[in-house]
Amino acid sequence: MASFTDRMIGAAKLDVHTYEEVEADTAAMGQSMAVVVLSSVAAGIGAAEGMIGLLVGSLAALVGWFVWAFVTYLIGTKILPEPQTEADVGQLLRTTGFSAAPGLLRVFGLIPGIGMLAVGVASTWMLVSITGLGNFPKIIPLVTITLIHLIAVHLSPILFLNLLM
């Protein structure tokens, strides 16, 4: 079994073996949650929103992660399943958690001139890693899951922060 750091690097490299290992390891839920929190903290630091923004953003990312994984589970296994589809919520939580590993690069959002580029690259990288997780060969489930991800993970923290301010 790979270390936490090796798993994060493997996930960022889009290594299928890493995702399969995490999917099968029921003890990896804490690690998956840690990746989501670290990615959220990196985004909060990169956005320079202060301590409140950092805490609220991390909480919103965790809630978004749970909601998104559950909705992905419903779409992928109940609404638009393929004959070979076999997954449970825990597997999706573990794999989607690790798919947030490229989000650590969002900390570079602080750097003037390249900050927006770094955030854009990291977010796109995260999206690419997520869309490959479900092994959904049809375009409709892929687009649906991508849209859910954009709303749950990227827009919900922004909307939540705007409600508080």
Architecture overview:
The protein has 165 residues and is an all-alpha fold. It has one domain (4-164). The chain has helices at residues 4-12, 16-24, 29-47, 50-79, 89-98, 115-131, 139-164. The longest helix is centred in the middle third of the chain and has 30 residues, at 50-79.
Keywords:
mainly alpha; 165 residues; 7 helices
User: Distance between the terminal alpha carbons, to the nearest Å?
Assistant: 44 Å
Report mean pLDDT, rounded to a whole number.
79
- The succession of helices and strands, N to C, reads HHHHHHH
Q: Tell me how many strands there are.
A: 0
Briefly, what is this?
The chain is mainly alpha-helical and 165 residues long.
Annotate the secondary structure layout:
Layout: H1 4-12, H2 16-24, H3 29-47, H4 50-79, H5 89-98, H6 115-131, H7 139-164
Helix pairs in contact: 2-5, 3-4, 3-5, 4-5, 4-7
